[in-house]
Specification:
The protein is an alpha/beta fold and 499 residues long. Helix content is 49%, strand content 8%. The chain has four domains: 92 residues, no CATH class; 213 residues, Rossmann fold, CATH 3.40.50; 55 residues, no CATH class; 103 residues, Arc Repressor Mutant, subunit A. The C terminus is likely disordered. This is Conserved domain protein.
Length: 499
């Protein structure tokens, strides 16, 4: 394969916005065996910047071509693709036999749907397949509070059909940190849009199933029946897309972050889960009458580049103080408005953290929030696990940033971060802004007028418990980072509400 053949293949695989002039130069010169330093000198860019752009290029190619592409192996990968292409062209009929004929595919899918369709006694919408929590079937989730505007936005997007001169929404990303209530909100909304979809397909990705497993679950086959369906990814996507064209479906992909690569910025897919990205691209680029709604702690790559009315993103933030007060009342916890405001500020209005705190207050402090506040330890049990899971997904530059901000006594300016991290070679210049943007998209970082800050309970967790990540700068941080000192935190842990 020649370099021109490789570039022609890339033109068909990548969006033009992901393969601009510098990307092409990096690819050409890497193909010739040039180092990043040599490429930077040739193109007139900083070496770190070229390395960063190159890294993004290899990630995008890996996703588009469904196999790992690096600077070192790109010729091997493209020659292998050329060989596979020749094999496929010589064996078209055999490959095509794996894909059911249009009428056969329609017949097969409808047969499976007829067999497994579930209709709840409490709802009027049919469910093709679901492994969502049991309370999806209740008419209203118990003690659901707030989220009026978010519900309004989702309902408006989900019920757009194009008949009123507005384009129907084909993909919705519902993003927010762990425990913020993404799944509960979607369940609440589903009860209000019963008549707008023929099928609701709920897929939990909590255990990071492969695409083959998710496909088998959607068509709801057992192991024996699964052998009758194609295992070829393109064929599976074709079957699903044909179904989504013929029927108005809502596909919910819950816990989408589990199939994204941890330890990286940018929402790249794990190596054996890239087929999900292929499905999303088909759903965004092809005409159909269905919608996919994904919930995630981070945005998958490619979606944030889509500036089109058929693709929408909603960031879910914390509850308001009044909603927190109402939530605590539902939990039968005795609290004043002031205490509720303090707890809301401390936990950032995170419903899960607030419910865990309420359980602790109920079991140990006779439902008295004021007594619980006096003990001074507000990060415990499953709250710790929740934060640990989210922090473990951070890329090294993100880890450095959150640990540095946690060690500071006040808000941190961008200049302060640059001085403390970039000038000391803890974070590169090219990584600083992308890392900050990534942290904000994960809802872990708040951008205030006087600088950047973490939510108080996240800051306390990092200062008191999280001693194993981002350790490079800790020699210069306060002692509280390496030991749990609740007494020292007692006066500063819970922010005071004013008025």
């Amino acid at each position: 394969m020649t370099i021109e053949d490789a570039l022609a293949l890339i033109d068909t695989a990548l969006d033009p916005s992901c393969f601009k002039n510098l990307h092409q130069d990096i690819f050409r010169l890497s193909w010739e065996g040039k180092s990043y330093q040599e490429i930077a000198e040739t193109c007139g860019y900083d070496t770190d910047y070229v390395r960063h752009v190159g890294y993004q290029l290899w990630q995008n190619l890996s996703q588009a071509l469904a196999q790992k592409v690096t600077k070192r192996n790109l010729q091997v990968v493209f020659r292998r693709l050329e060989q596979q292409s020749q094999i496929l062209s010589n064996d078209v009929e055999e490959i095509a036999s794996l894909v059911p004929k249009p009428q056969q595919a329609k017949s097969n899918i409808n047969a499976y749907v007829t067999k497994v369709e579930l209709v709840s006694d409490q709802t009027t919408y049919p469910l093709l397949w679901s492994d969502s929590p049991n309370y999806l079937y209740t008419k209203h989730s118990q003690h659901f509070v707030g989220r009026q505007q978010e519900q309004k936005n989702l309902i408006q997007w989900l019920t757009r059909t194009g008949q009123d001169q507005t384009l129907p929404v084909q993909l919705i990303s519902l993003l927010g940190m762990a425990g913020i209530g993404k799944t509960s909100l979607v369940q609440q909304v589903i009860h209000q849009i019963q008549g707008h979809f023929q099928k609701v397909i709920w897929c939990s990705l909590r255990n990071a199933p492969t695409f083959n497993e998710t496909f088998a679950n959607i068509v709801n086959t057992d192991e024996q029946e699964a052998l009758q369906w194609p295992t070829y990814i393109d064929a599976q996507i074709e079957i699903l897309m044909r179904y989504f064209c013929q029927h108005r479906c809502l596909l919910v992909l819950d816990n989408f972050e589990t199939i994204l690569q941890p330890g990286q910025m940018g929402g790249h897919y794990r190596s054996n889960h890239q087929a999900y990205g292929q499905l999303l691209r088909h759903l965004m680029d092809s005409p159909h009458q269905s919608c996919v709604l994904l919930t995630s702690r981070e945005q998958p790559i490619g979606i944030n580049l889509r500036n089109q009315p058929t693709v929408q993103t909603l960031y879910l933030h914390g509850l308001s103080p009044s909603e927190t007060h109402l939530l605590l009342n539902h939990q039968e916890v005795k609290t004043t408005q002031t205490d509720a405001e303090n707890l809301n500020a401390y936990y950032g209005g995170n419903p899960y953290a607030l419910k865990v705190a309420a359980t602790n207050v109920t079991s140990l402090f006779h439902r008295q929030v004021a007594e619980w506040i006096k003990q001074g330890n507000f990060v415990f049990g499953t709250i710790q696990q929740l934060l640990k899971q989210q922090l473990q997904r951070l890329a090294p530059p993100e880890q450095e940033i959150v640990n540095f901000i946690a060690a500071e006594t006040g808000n941190v300016t961008l200049d302060r971060l640059h001085t403390a991290l970039v000038l000391k070679d803890l974070v590169s210049t090219t990584d600083l802004l992308p890392a900050l943007q990534s942290l904000q998209s994960r809802s872990l970082l708040c951008n205030q007028e006087d600088g950047l800050q973490l939510l108080p309970y996240l800051r306390e967790y990092l200062r008191c418990y999280q001693t194993s990540i981002g350790a490079k700068h800790r020699a210069s941080t306060p002692e509280v980072l390496t030991s749990f000192q609740p007494a020292a935190l007692l006066s500063t842990s819970l922010p005071l509400a004013h008025g």
